[in-house]
Specification:
Length: 260
């Protein structure tokens, strides 16, 4: 049965408020989601005041500043710091995005809230459990599948064929899109979600791939593909400006075309 309210131990409570730094020139308030499985208890909002003149321009800079100078126990993922690895995705000011390319001055309001990507189990603080997300990515077999013997050099593509991959290959697998999708919230165990389906289309449309029929068979199911209801949150939040909903619509079109 669908559970419509959070279990008691998942409800957020007010946590610690850290003192304001003395002599700050440009103060900003950040409310950050905290949860520690070792400590137990309910997740909480901790409040931090940061002097923005002391850190870089991005939300990730603020988190690194807090970790280095205020609370070293704050946990979050990051790697490249330039929008290519996808690991720093989180919910900032109510929208999913990546923290390393989101400027704190782009977030409206006196207080900036920072929470983990929604509707995923939380490992700790801002670190969500992406096990299911990666399993769904693996399910679409995101690699070239061919029957033709391998050429001596590269698999060739015309310029037009290569252009078909634009708007698809740029995905950094940050999971912002899937975790912003209400269909994915309700059926994340059965619906593959926008990110995995964008990848599925990326290989369906690749002129070098020879497993199109097999790939479509793998998506022919009431849930895996067809739970997309064109809500479009995915396209709105994607930090790389991609449109997973459009890719999903194109897969649906391929499904129709092969039976007609
Ligand atoms: S489509 Fe965009 S939002 Fe979705 S995983 Fe890829 S980069 Fe992230
Ligand atoms: S740290 Fe790599 S995308 Fe943000």
């Amino acid at each position: 049965m669908v559970q419509l309210t959070l279990p008691r131990n998942s409800k957020l409570v007010t946590g610690k408020t850290w003192p304001k730094p003395e002599g700050a020139a440009k103060l900003k308030k950040f409310k950050i989601y905290r949860y520690s499985p070792e400590e137990g208890g309910q997740p909480r909002w901790d409040t931090f005041w940061v002097d923005l003149t002391k850190c870089g321009p991005m939300v990730l800079d603020v988190l690194i500043y807090i970790k280095n100078n205020v609370d070293p126990s704050l946990a979050f993922r990051r790697s490249c710091r330039e929008g290519v690895c996808g690991s720093c995705a989180m919910n900032i000011g109510g929208n999913n995005t990546i923290a390393c390319t989101k400027g704190w001055d782009e977030v409206a309001g006196n207080t900036i809230t920072i929470a983990p990507l929604p509707h995923l189990p939380v490992v700790r603080d801002l670190v969500p459990d992406l096990t299911n997300f990666y399993a769904q990515h693996a399910y679409v077999q995101p690699f070239l599948k061919t029957d033709t013997p391998e050429p001596e050099k590269e698999w060739k593509q015309s310029e037009d064929q290569r252009n078909e991959l634009n708007g698809l290959y740029e995905c950094i697998l940050c999971a912002s899109c899937s975790t912003s999708c209400p269909s994915y919230w309700w059926n994340g165990d059965k619906y593959l979600g926008p990110a995995a389906l964008l990848q599925a289309y990326r290989w369906l449309i690749d002129s070098r791939d020879e497993a199109t029929g097999e790939r479509l068979d793998d998506l022919e199911d009431p849930f895996k593909l067809y739970r997309c209801h064109t809500i479009m949150n995915c396209a709105q939040v994607c930090p790389k400006g991609l449109n997973p909903a459009k890719a999903i619509a194109k897969i649906k079109h391929m499904m129709v075309e092969r039976v007609s």
